[in-house]
Every structure is written in C-alpha cells, then in structure tokens.
Amino acid sequence: MKTSQLMVISCFIISANCWLSPSGYSDTLKEKMHEWHAKCQRYSAVPEELIEEMKKGKFPEVESAKRYTSCLWTLDGPFDRDYKMNSLKMLKYVHDNHSEDGHDYVRCNREALASGAKSFELFWTMQKCIQKRVDESHYIFF
Questions:
Q1: Where does the secretion signal sit in this chain (predicted)?
Q2: From residue 43, how far is each of 38, 70, 103, 108, 134 by CA, in Å?
C-alpha cells in the first residue's frame, strides 16, 4: 500500500465497559470514525456482533474481523511504505490526554513487524498487542 494508514485504532465506544467513549477521541478521529467504520465493514463483511466483541478486547480468529481491523489501520494511517509506524503521525489520532499511549502503539507495531506477519495479519497482531498494553479506559476501537 502506498500510504499507510491507520484508523487509529479501532474505536472503542462503551464507557460503561471502560472503553473510551467517542467524546474522548481526538478531533481527527472523531471526523473519520464513522466513514472508516462504514467503508471497512462493507469491505470486510464483518458482522456488527464481531465488532462489538473486538471493542471488548476479544479477537476471534475470523478472517472478516482481521480484514476489518487491517482496513481501519490502512485507510489514513501513520505508516511508511514498509508499515513502520511514524509516532508523530500516530499522535494526531490519539487525544492529547492520552498521548502517553503513543509509545505502546509504536512498540506493538515494531513487535508485529518483527513477528514476520504480513498483510492483514500484521495489523491483527498489532491490534491485539495494543489492546493488551493500552489502559482499557483509553482503548479505541470502532
């Protein structure tokens, strides 16, 4: 892919479940999330029920879920041509109050690249890592 993209990461909606509500998203992410969700859901044909499971941190090994996650990350993300994350670009998707999480995103990207994962498996591996490392009250997935 020519320009890497990221949907920062997945949006995570339900504050009652400790996920960051959209009001806590960066302005950039708020502007894009609905469009990205619609495009990626059409592309991947992932059922809404699986997306809800991913918001809760469960990652079923289902191809459509992997494609959805990959799509979100590659629409307008902070990656170079080799999918290495640019931390400065990443920060435009992370709310200022949660900028300390940026290092976790970069670390998970490095680990996913080092694993040898390719294509949508790379973003799947990275997203699962992010979900484990980022404080659940900051976790974004849509």
A1: 1-18
A2: 9, 11, 30, 25, 27
List 85's β-bridge partners, or say none: 79
Q: Tokens standing for 11?
A: 């949006």
Q: What predicted TM-score, i.e. pTM, was given to this entire model? A: 0.76
Q: What is the spatial distance between Cα 99 and Cα 39, in angstroms, rounded to a whole number?
A: 27
Express each pLDDT in 49-102 by its tens digit. Answer: 998 888 888 888 999 999 999 998 888 778 888 999 887 777 777 666 566 777
Q: How confident is the model at residue 2 (pLDDT cuts 50, 70, 90)?
A: very low
Residue 38 CB coordination number (10 Å): 10
Q: Which amino acid, one-letter code, is at 83?
A: Y
Query: What is the CATH number for 78?
Result: 1.10.238.20
Is 5 part of any domain?
Answer: no
